[in-house]
Write a structure and sequence with these properties.
Largest sheet: none
Radius of gyration: 22 Å
Shape: elongated
Number of helices: 4
Distance between the termini: 45 Å
Number of strands: 0
Structural class: mainly alpha
Oligomer: single chain
């Protein structure tokens, strides 16, 4: 009698494990379908922001500047914007003003933290050039990320 109970429990456990593995493989499959879109959104955002930064910088950086700035820009985008992007994609909405304002908030926070950690000469005085640059970079970063996120990822999912 004990042996049949063990077989029954073992069979139940095997069924549960198979079900959990199936659920996990389904989630991985869904994630692997959207990873390229996250990548396209991230690369497009980095290149767009880098291009604007190079255009408004005082040096003649050219294409090399776009590449160099992109490598610096990808870090805060990965740390701050991609997690927000994943959250937004739970309820996708193309060109949502709410998502744009949330992107601005997180961008302001990210640029502040990133600038503080890297010890840039950062001043919170309202009318200084540094503060104007802070707002310009933050708003540009939010705008580009929100735009490319809407283009590549914020798609209405089918009701399946």
């Amino acid at each position: 009698m004990g042996q049949s109970r063990n077989k029954k429990n073992s069979s139940h456990l095997e069924g549960w494990v198979k079900m959990e593995l199936w659920k996990m493989s389904q989630k991985v499959s869904e994630l692997s379908d959207v990873i390229p879109y996250y990548f396209f959104s991230l690369v497009s955002s980095c290149l767009s922001l880098s291009t604007v930064m190079v255009m408004f910088s005082e040096g003649s950086w050219g294409v090399l500047g776009i590449i160099v700035f992109s490598f610096y820009i990808v870090i805060p985008y990965l740390l701050f914007a991609v997690p927000v992007q994943v959250l937004f994609n739970k309820h996708p909405k193309k060109f949502s003003s709410l998502y744009f304002f949330l992107s601005i908030f997180f961008s302001l926070l990210a640029v502040f933290i990133y600038s503080s950690v890297l010890n840039f000469d950062f001043s919170m005085e309202v009318l200084t050039t540094t503060t104007k640059n802070y707002y310009a970079i933050s708003l540009s970063a939010a705008l580009f990320f929100w735009f490319w996120d809407s283009v590549f990822l914020q798609k209405k999912r089918s009701a399946s």
